[in-house]
Write a structure and sequence with these properties.
The chain is an alpha+beta fold. The chain has ten helices and nine strands. α6 crosses α9. The active site is at 116.
Length: 275
């Protein structure tokens, strides 16, 4: 099958364009990766390119040995993914040690995978393990309202989670485990990949202060939906804070406990503190 005709490729491109249309991908901001299923690799195998040279990933991901990923290219604009996917996207293969990758398709005008490849692959490795292989999508976006909140809220998981939960009743049902927050770090390297990977052990969403957010999920829809829900909640919080510094009424800890019973979700008590 032609690579661009594969369903997962179509879904990848649609999600990237949905993110662009939300305004989360100025210039080359953000990146997306998908852990391709073995049967999907077989469908496209005869269209993969010659095996290129092995290049160090910069981190070790032994549990991803032999896996194939579709990822966005570094410096590529999300705006252009739908226009010219073969120039903006690539399929890479991981070696049997999980230390190197090689290009097998795409980036026809040159270039390499996203500079955030270490974080993407470390997140994939953690999520593959903790989800029993179900999670396949890692998405990084420059979500405007979440970024703005990192200038005014304390950079604590408990505070971000609780404030975001309070802004929309559906939030604790969509992300019952909460969100993790990392203080400002240099992007694009090993250190930030390790810190993000640690938080991905317990959260599906991690905020990078003054930068953006990473989300993980089983499918393109679920991962995009998670990013969208959190960013919308951040937008509501900013509107509320812009009107008045304190709320007249809100969803209370006991309301959240009732919600947990009604929707069969576990909401950790550490997020339900008295203010
Ligand atoms: P890339 O163009 O390398 O994907 O980088 C964009 C980005 O958002 C870095 O955090
Ligand atoms: Zn970024």
């Amino acid at each position: 099958m032609k690579i661009l005709d594969a369903k997962f490729v179509q879904d990848f491109i649609k999600m990237a364009d949905d993110g662009y249309q939300q305004g989360w991908h100025e210039r080359n901001g953000g990146n997306l990766s998908y852990r391709i299923k073995p049967e999907e690799v077989e469908i496209i195998r005869n269209r993969l390119d010659e095996k290129g040279e092995w290049i160090p990933i910069g981190v070790s991901v032994p549990d991803l040995a032999g896996e194939f990923f579709m990822v966005t290219g570094t410096g590529k604009y999300f705006r252009n993914i739908i226009v010219d996917p073969e120039a903006c996207l690539t399929i890479i293969e991981i070696d049997e040690k999980g230390e190197n990758y090689r290009k097998r398709w795409g980036l026809v005008e040159g270039g390499g995978p996203t500079s955030e490849l270490p974080t993407h692959l470390m997140n994939h490795e953690v999520k593959k393990r903790v989800s029993g292989g179900k999670h396949r999508v890692i998405y990084h976006a420059h979500t405007t309202n979440v970024i703005a909140l990192t200038f005014v809220l304390p950079l604590k998981d408990e505070i971000f989670t609780r404030e975001l939960w309070e802004m929309a009743t559906e939030c604790p049902i969509v992300f019952p485990d909460g969100v993790g927050v990392i203080g400002w770090m240099v992007p694009g390297g090993r250190e930030i990949a390790i810190e993000t990977g640690k938080l991905m052990e317990k959260y599906d969403a991690v905020i990078w202060a003054h930068h953006g957010m990473f989300c993980s999920g089983e499918s393109f829809d679920l991962t995009f939906g998670l990013m969208h829900t959190i960013e919308k909640s951040a937008e509501i919080l900013i509107k509320v804070l812009s009107m008045k510094p304190d709320k007249l009424q809100t969803i209370t800890p006991d309301n959240f406990r009732d919600l947990a019973v009604a929707f069969h979700v576990q909401l950790p008590e550490r997020f339900l503190y008295e203010k």
